[in-house]
Specification:
Layout: H1 4-8, H2 16-30, H3 39-56, H4 59-74, H5 94-106, E1 109-112, E2 117-121, E3 128-132
Antiparallel strand pairs: 1-2, 2-3
Length: 134
């Protein structure tokens, strides 16, 4: 997973205004029209900068990104059932975590941090449960 803070050259504690300022400076520096000699490289860098700003420039997306980075960096241990293909107490890497989340989504679970809860509806059980999380 890309480190969008590194792409924009800012720390994780910066404000929205500082992120916007960093984005504008880099966008001007790497705009393909302003770099005719290295247009291909500038275009790639410009796309990467835009992708980073699209996430970090939106407060909701930034919170979600920070949460996912924290999960990946700390390699949280999850207790899972065998049908998810993850052994008990296994430390998850990024790819395994993404596979687990896809399998949970296929079972009807959705993760919505904006509402402050995880809501799960498992097919065939006929009930929805709501779990509050910190």
């Amino acid at each position: 997973m890309k480190d969008y803070y590194q792409v924009l050259g800012v720390s994780k504690e910066v404000s929205h205004e500082e992120i916007k300022k960093a984005f504008r400076g880099l966008a001007l520096r790497y705009h393909p029209d302003l770099n005719p000699q290295g247009q291909k490289q500038a275009e790639e860098k410009f796309k990467e900068i835009n992708e980073a700003y699209e996430v970090l420039g939106d407060e909701h997306k930034r919170r979600q990104y920070d949460y996912m980075i924290a999960l990946i960096q700390h390699r949280q241990k999850f207790v899972t059932e065998d049908d998810f293909g993850v052994s008990f107490g296994q430390t998850l890497d990024e790819e395994t975590l993404q596979q687990l989340l896809r399998r949970l989504a296929a079972l009807g679970f959705s993760f919505n941090s904006g509402l402050g809860h995880i809501r799960g509806c498992r097919r065939g059980y006929g009930r929805c449960r709501r779990w509050n999380h910190p």
